[in-house]
Design a protein that fits this description.
The chain is α/β, with parallel strands linked by helices and 364 residues long. The protein has helices spanning 2-6, 15-27, 44-53, 75-80, 97-100, 116-128, 154-159, 165-171, 188-202, 212-219, 226-240, 248-257, 280-313, 322-336, 341-348, 352-362; strands at 34-38, 62-66, 81-82, 94-95, 105-109, 130-131, 140-141, 145-150, 175-178, 209-210, 245-246. The longest helix has 34 residues, at 280-313.
Length: 364
């Protein structure tokens, strides 16, 4: 089963990736929607590709949509297409992503970034297989498998009102969890060797190998950017390598030049022998834990600093009039929704007409 991951550029035969491969093998032949959850850089798009290529839709298109990269104002036009004259500048009919993916798979990357008002239309496509172009009057049928991915906690997004509960329930029936690289250090050496072989093949170079010390240093690194960071770092090693072997010194130099302090030394007993009471694997796991905790502490300290700065700038609310309070609250809500007045009005519990009137009144 691991071979189906290697076909799309994924390596790693540890327990976690074996489970991922097993899930893909079971779900790929079906038409079920799939939700892939994992941190940035863990390879979510490659997992979507593996699902598509091991399905009966492999000969049809795989269309990728980065939901966070499309401006909210043109999102539906990009996804569903538009009719000629639907809006200013629509001088011709245009097919959207769902229409282009007919018979194949559409990969909705970072679906947690999708505008709330568009989520209900995605749900409709999932339930009925129909959609309408912007400005259209006739439903269009499509046969598309939806694979979505996110690095957000969608359950929390649902509770905060940022993601539709019905769409979340529809997507999460089949969920693939991609663990961060720091949680599967047993895959790091295999991944580095895989990336090195692939880079050499693509660039017409003789294959290079890693010394045991080089691999140990790679395995002891935190890799906050996950597989993407490891891949880029491995390729940089190949560029600077002398001869046919990557040694520990080169790895150490490149980590230092990258400004990384995430590699910690393995403790040794006097005379250079490892402490027989603590295994290197245990030490490595301890270091991963410490590094993770330090990152969490640093994040919380920065957040505390931001809150203190905001508190220092906060005005005395008891000295403000009701109109001033309402004006400031409206300004904050409009900023929160990126200036989208329809969503802001809904959040405030007032009509759009009332919101427009108050915007003019307060000069917002």
């Amino acid at each position: 089963m691991i071979s189906l991951l290697r076909k799309v550029g994924i390596a790693g035969s540890g327990t976690a990736m074996q489970q991922v491969a097993s899930t893909i093998a079971q779900v790929a032949p079906t038409s079920l929607s799939v939700l892939i959850h994992g941190e940035s850089g863990t390879g979510k798009e490659l997992i979507a590709k593996a699902i598509h290529e091991n399905s009966s839709r492999a000969e049809r298109p795989l269309i990728t949509v980065n939901c966070g990269a499309i401006p909210e104002g043109i999102f539906e036009s990009e996804i569903f297409g538009h009719e000629k004259g639907a809006f200013t500048g629509a001088d011709r009919q245009r097919k959207g992503m769902f229409e282009l993916a007919d018979g194949g798979t559409i990969f909705l990357d970072e679906i947690g970034e999708m505008p709330l008002f568009s989520q209900v239309k995605i749900l409709r496509v999932l339930e009925t297989g129909e959609f309408m172009r912007v400005g259209g009057q006739t439903p269009i049928r499509t046969d598309v498998r939806v694979v979505a991915a996110t690095n957000r906690d969608l359950a929390s997004e649902v509770q905060e009102g940022n993601f539709r509960q019905d769409l979340f329930f529809r997507l999460k029936a089949i969920t693939i969890l991609l663990p961060p690289l720091r949680d599967r250090p047993e895959d790091i050496a295999e991944l580095a060797e895989f990336f090195a072989a692939d880079f050499c093949r693509r660039n017409g170079r003789q294959p290079l190998s890693f010394s045991p010390e080089a691999l140990e240093l790679l395995e002891g690194h935190y890799w906050q950017g996950n597989i993407r960071e490891l891949k880029n770092f491995t390729e940089s090693l190949l560029i600077f390598a002398q001869g046919q072997r990557i040694d520990g010194e080169l790895v150490r130099q490149r980590l230092a030049q990258d400004g990384s302090s995430a590699n910690l030394p393995i403790l040794s007993a006097p005379g250079g022998a490892e402490d027989p009471g603590i295994s290197p694997d245990l030490l490595r796991q301890m270091f991963f834990y410490i590094q993770h905790e330090l990152a969490e502490i640093r994040s919380r300290v920065e957040e505390l600093g931001r809150r203190q700065e905001a508190a220092a700038q906060e005005v005395d609310l008891t000295q403000m009039t009701v109109e001033e309070l309402e004006r400031d609250h409206m300004r904050e809500v409009l900023a929160e929704y990126g200036g989208n007045r329809a969503r802001a009005a809904k959040s405030l519990g007032i009509s759009e007409r009332t919101l427009y009137r108050k915007i003019r009144r307060y000069g917002l």
